[in-house]
Amino acid sequence: MKGRDDTPEASLVERVIAGDKVAFGRLVEPHLPRLLGLARRMLPFADEAEDALQNALASVWIARAGLDPQQPVAAFLTTVTLNKCRDRLRRLKVARLLRFTALDSDVPVAADQPAPDTEIADRQMLAHVIRTIDRLPLRLREALVLVAIEGRSHREVADLLGLTEKAVETRVYRARQRLRERIDFL
What we know:
mainly alpha; Rna Polymerase Sigma Factor, Chain: A; 186 residues; RNA polymerase sigma factor RpoE; globular; 0% strand; disordered N terminus
């Protein structure tokens, strides 16, 4: 029977620790779409999300000696990405406070060629929902994004955020409740 350290991921982690950049690319590549999606949901601008993910990957590379070949890398990558998103959000908050930037979101929406009035209404509703999610307190937004949008279990989110499952459940409930209060159709 193979042990945990005999998996292809464990082998890649060992090569990454040794400084193999190609192995690092192979290790993180399957996680990139999910991590970028997470960053885009946490941050108001796509370019901020891309920068946060790039910083997260650079941080993982720099701290590669701390990787554990016996632990799955997905949770570690998610945690580092969330931390970089938090850092960016703090900077954006300071910039907003100092009025250096305007934080109006550009909301890209894929068009399926609906009727123009339907498309306009849908875009407006989506923009309203995104703005409402962006205004949630960070602790509620993180739990909501990870559970409702990323599709993670309460247990996974609890492990990622260092909480109990009940705390995650409560945060998701409160986030949804606040959304319902602010958006009349939910």
